[in-house]
Structure formats: structure tokens, C-alpha cells
Amino acid sequence: GAIAGIAAVPAAALMAKDAGAAALQPLSETDPTAKSLAYVTDASKVNAKANPNYKPGQKCSNCVQYSGKPGAADGPCTIFPGKTVKAAGWCKVWMLKPGAKLG
User: Fold this and answer.
1) Chain centroid to CA 51: how far?
2) Whole-model pTM?
3) High-pLDDT (> 90) share of the chain, %
């Protein structure tokens, strides 16, 4: 009985973590914070003239702020708490994740 109880604790923690992730809402480009940081859901649509720091290949999935799983379509971002951003998106706070490459 004790072993089954111990095994149930990690499973319960994983389920709680998944439930928390499900509670995140997708970030809208019309969100005031998103607008102030020029967030777009598709980095290929960044206005390069308005955002001179943008370089092709920069996207949320290779940004240090992004914590989504590799290959996922979206994930959490530390800049937008409680929201998910598109892995293919971009904003002005973008910074290359250590070990990542542009592209």
C-alpha cells in the first residue's frame, strides 16, 4: 500500500502541472502588452522597418524567454505570464536561447 501511495505522488504532480499548462490562454496580437512589444504570431510578418533589431530566423522557439517544448506549436513565455505564444512568433524582447541557432 505504501509503495502505491508513493508512486501516486509524482503522477498527481504531473497531472497538476498539465492542468496548469492547459489554463494558459493564447496571447493575442491585440493584447496591449503584445502590441507594445510588437508581438506577431508569425515572425515572417515582422515589420523590419519598424523593428530594426529583427533578423530573419529569430522566433519565439529559439528565444531564451520561451519555455515551450521543442517542436510544439506554442508554449509559455516569461514576458507574457499566463499566456502562450506561437513558437513561430516574435517580439521586441527576443534574445537567442543559449545553444540555439537562428533558422
Assistant:
1) 20
2) 0.76
3) 74
